[in-house]
Every structure is written in structure tokens, then in C-alpha cells.
Specification:
Length: 519
């Protein structure tokens, strides 16, 4: 058998590895878990880089066991790496980690994100690594003075395998904004950032530009496995490594998304819509974050906290009340949702079980349904109204992209919503855009990492295809496709207009139930 590809994904709760054949069919898997550093204050989340390394050893052992049981040898042609984005991993000049890493979900630097957004004139969410570094020099100056390198979890694993401080452009964009004209960190913004950072007492501190890893695009040189990496993996030195990427760019790769106008939309507890752009976004919007695809194309991300949870809550409520449901609420009620009228019988909902930063909702607890009467008060109408309310929040950010002329040609839908795939029709109608649910690719980041490894190997072998063409060549299976229905599109557009008026009243509703909206 020809050598295959190793994909590594370091997530928030654990690390997984997969081994594929040359056609990217998964042959074996392995995984190991890790936790957060205990005893931290609320909203503080840290992990030890050494725990990622130990999990990698254990996951590789599990992979070998899985492959051995199938009589398959682990012969690796190239390695791809994916990891949780926006982390802050600091190391000294010797490459030793300066304590635990702060993760994407750590909320200590929200003020720095707002400050940098105002100063730089581009969206700098609290998750971005550069906001974490500004917090560190202000609050942990002893760490900041010793720092010689700053990277992400994926970048740390790449460093441990190759000895190089390099990073894929998508993950790098989660550290600091990328200039689309150079496909490198924005030099003008870096200079302005350092002017802001050098004003902090307790310095001097290293310049951010001197700390950041080198940027590499898909197919580029991510290094090769060195002696230390070979010992960690139990493999031989010299294996090529693709540029390490963040989980969102890797998920885009895993869904074979690379062309401008394609949107990767994942519906689960939260909702993410990553739109591939053909140019950079202008200005700042609280509803839209920015990073890059593995080849450097700009990605505009709309993130919704209140995902399927409001609909799931309604389904579970009716399921508990339904006689003889036997705990099968979704099996019983989802057909009713599918049969509900496009306008939900006139019902309209707010889905805010939690806050929703993208539309300016500061508090949860104002989920509601209005317009109930004896004709429309059915489980299907109520649950569908909650789903549509979340969709309309997502549409808000997407409409901001449309206002700047960004293309939207196809939505590739994944996540928990696809357990009822017919709901893809609702998304197609609401966005007036064709929807595809793939069955020949996987959403998993580890598979996306293996795909990036395959592309690195292809480039080394002289394959001249660009990233988008390479992705398209791996499409397989028979996807489900939903075209917008002409009769439903105007109905849902009218509902979205009504929803925007209801959303404008949300602060008053928030105050009426005993909360005061943040000023």
C-alpha cells in the first residue's frame, strides 16, 4: 500500500488523529483527552502545552492499535495539523513554554479587543491572540519580558514536530489581521499596535512583529519532522508537514470549500457561517469576524450563540408534554416542524436564551413567541418560529456582506441540524440561496488536516493545481441539494422584516423582565 496521510486535530477537550490512504479514505483513528487548568476564576480558561503533547503520544498509540487490528501499517507521506484558534502560547528564546496557554474561550481581554478595534479601525474580537498579548503585557509583565515566541495550539504542536515557528495563514489571521495585498500580517497595523503596546508601564516588551510565527499558505513549507518530533510521534524524521491551521480553516477544507461565494454553515448549539470572500471586508461590524482560508482567501464569519438551543428547548418541552412520546421528542415533533406553514401561521419569536453579541443583545432570558391564537398554537409552528428567529439573526450578518457586494452562491450545511436534512429547505428559502448537504466529505478538522497534508505532498510532487481545484477534485458521493422555492422566498423575507422590528424592541423587553441593557 502507498504511504498515507496523518491528520492531527487539537481541540478544546481533546486531541484526535486519523490516518488515511492516498484517496483520503480514513483507515484508522486515535484520540486522547485533556482538561483545563483547575482552580481558575470564572471565564478564565487555560491548558498546559505539555498536556497536548502527552495526548498526542496517547492518540498515536491508539491509532497504531486500531491499524494493527486491521493489519494496516502506519506509513506516513505527510502530516497536517489543526487546532483551536486564537490561543496564546508564549515561549522563551529556548522554545520553552512560559506556563499554561490561554485559550480562545478565555474572556479576560475583552476590553483590549474593544480598545484595539477602535485604535486600529478593524475588527479585533476579544478572542484574537493580539488582544491576549496586550492583556499579558499589562497584567503579566514578567511573562511578557521573557517572551521570544507567540503562537497558537496548532503552532505549538507544529513547533514540537518540526522545530520551526511557522503557521498556516488561516490560524495566523486569528492572531493578527492579514493584509490581502501581501498575504502576510498587516505591517501598518502592526506598527500602530506596537505604538499602543509600548505605552504600557513595566517595559520594554518585545515587539509583536518579532514574536509572531512566519505565515505559510496551503501547500507551502510547514517544515519536516525533526528528531524530537519523530520521537514524539514514533515515526521517522524527514516527513513533510503542512502549515498548521486553525480549526475553522481546517473545517472549511474538510467540507471542500474554497471558492469565493461558498458559505460553510454549521448549525448546532451555536451557529457559524463562514463565507469565502473575493476581497477584504470594509470597516467594522460587531456581527462579522474575519480570518482566512488555508490559501489566503478572506473569510467573513458570522457567529450566533443562540443556535439550535431555542428550537431544541421547545421540542423538548412539547415532547415532555406529549402523551406516549417515550423520550422520542425529536422523532415525534420534527415532522410537525417540516409540515408547518412557511410563515409559522403568523407566529414570530425571539430566541435569546443567551446573549447575542452580533445583534447587540446583552442578556439572555428574553426568548418568547408572539402572535399565538387558537389556529396557530401548534408545536410545529412554535418550534419552527424559534428556528427561524435564529436564522434571521444569522441573516442579519449575511445581509451586511451582501450590502458590500460579496457573492453568495452556495451554502454547504453541516452540524446537528442535518439530522433532519429536510430543514435544508428552510435555510435555502430564508437565504434565497441553494443549499448543499455533503455526504462525500466530513466536517471533522482532523480530516481537513489530512487533506492539507495531501496537498503539501502533491505540491512537493510537482502538482500545479491551486487549492480550490485540488479541493474540488475530492468531491464524491451524492449530496442533497435544495433550491430556494419561489413561493416561499418572499414570505420569509417579509417575516425577516417583521423580525427586525421585533429585535429593535428587545432592549425594552429586557428591561421589562428586570434587566437593564448595558449602555
Amino acid at each position: 500500500m502507498e504511504p498515507g496521510f496523518l491528520g492531527i486535530d487539537a481541540g478544546t477537550q481533546g486531541l484526535s488523529v486519523i490516518f488515511t490512504d492516498v484517496s483520503l479514505r480514513i483507515l484508522g483513528t486515535g484520540a486522547a483527552e485533556y482538561g483545563m487548568v483547575p482552580g481558575l476564576d470564572p471565564e478564565c480558561y487555560e491548558q498546559r502545552p505539555g498536556d497536548w503533547e502527552q495526548a498526542l503520544r496517547l492518540a498515536m498509540d491508539a491509532l497504531r492499535g486500531d491499524l494493527a487490528a486491521k493489519g494496516i501499517a502506519l506509513d506516513v507521506a505527510a502530516i497536517g495539523i489543526s487546532g483551536q484558534m486564537h490561543g496564546e502560547v508564549l515561549a522563551d528564546a529556548a522554545g520553552t513554554a512560559l506556563g499554561p496557554a490561554r485559550l480562545w474561550c478565555d474572556s479576560r481581554n475583552a476590553a483590549e479587543g474593544d480598545e484595539l478595534t477602535d485604535r486600529l479601525g478593524v475588527k479585533m474580537p476579544k478572542r484574537i491572540t493580539a488582544a491576549r498579548w496586550l492583556w499579558t503585557i499589562r497584567n503579566r509583565p514578567e511573562h511578557a519580558r521573557r517572551a521570544a515566541h507567540l503562537t497558537t495550539p496548532a503552532g505549538w504542536i507544529a513547533r514540537r514536530l518540526t522545530g520551526q515557528w511557522r503557521l498556516g495563514i488561516g490560524d495566523a489571521a486569528g492572531m493578527f489581521p492579514i493584509d490581502q495585498s501581501t498575504l502576510d500580517y498587516d505591517a501598518r497595523l502592526l506598527a500602530e499596535y506596537d505604538r499602543c503596546a509600548t505605552a504600557v508601564a513595566g517595559g520594554p516588551f518585545p515587539r509583536l512583529a518579532d514574536l509572531l510565527p512566519a505565515v505559510r499558505r496551503a501547500g507551502g513549507d510547514g517544515g519536516v519532522v525533526d528528531a524530537g518530533g519523530a520521537a514524539l510521534l514514533g515515526l521517522t524524521p524527514g516527513i513533510p508537514v503542512a502549515p498548521a491551521e486553525g480549526d475553522q480553516p481546517a473545517a472549511l477544507a474538510g467540507s471542500l470549500i474554497g471558492a469565493a461565494g461558498q458559505v460553510a454553515m454549521s448549525f448546532g448549539t451555536s451557529v457559524v457561517a463562514n463565507s469565502v470572500g473575493d476581497r477584504a471586508f470594509r470597516g467594522v461590524s460587531r456581527a462579522i469576524d474575519h480570518f482566512c482560508a488555508p490559501d489566503g482567501k478572506p473569510i467573513n464569519m458570522v457567529w450566533i450563540r443562540n443556535g439550535t438551543t431555542p428550537m431544541n428547548t421547545v421540542v423538548a418541552m412539547f415532547g415532555l408534554a406529549g402523551a406516549g412520546s417515550g423520550g422520542r421528542a425529536f422523532e415525534t415533533l420534527m415532522p410537525l416542524v417540516l409540515d408547518a406553514a412557511d410563515d409559522c401561521g403568523g407566529l414570530l419569536a425571539l430566541p435569546f436564551i443567551d446573549d447575542e453579541p452580533g445583534v447587540g443583545v446583552q442578556h439572555g432570558g428574553t426568548a418568547l413567541v408572539i402572535g399565538l391564537n387558537d389556529a396557530n398554537a401548534t408545536p410545529g409552528n412554535v418550534a419552527k418560529a424559534m428556528l427561524l428567529a435564529t436564522v434571521f439573526n444569522l441573516l442579519h450578518g449575511s445581509d451586511l456582506l451582501a450590502a458590500q457586494g460579496f457573492p453568495r452562491t452556495e451554502i454547504i450545511l453541516s452540524g446537528g441540524l442535518t439530522k433532519t436534512p429536510q430543514l435544508g429547505q428552510v435555510i435555502a428559502d430564508a437565504f434565497d440561496t441553494p443549499v448543499t448537504i455533503l455526504d462525500g466529505a466530513t466536517e471533522g478538522c482532523a480530516w481537513g488536516a489530512a487533506l492539507m497534508a495531501a496537498y503539501r505532498a502533491a505540491v512537493l510532487a510537482g502538482d500545479g493545481r491551486d487549492w480550490g481545484t485540488f479541493l474540488a477534485a475530492h468531491a464524491s458521493g451524492t449530496p442533497l441539494r435544495f433550491a430556494p422555492r419561489p413561493e416561499a422566498v418572499p414570505v420569509l423575507a417579509a417575516m425577516a422584516t417583521r423580525y427586525r422590528r421585533l429585535l429593535a424592541a428587545q432592549p425594552a423587553l429586557d428591561a421589562a423582565v428586570g434587566r437593564t441593557p448595558a449602555s
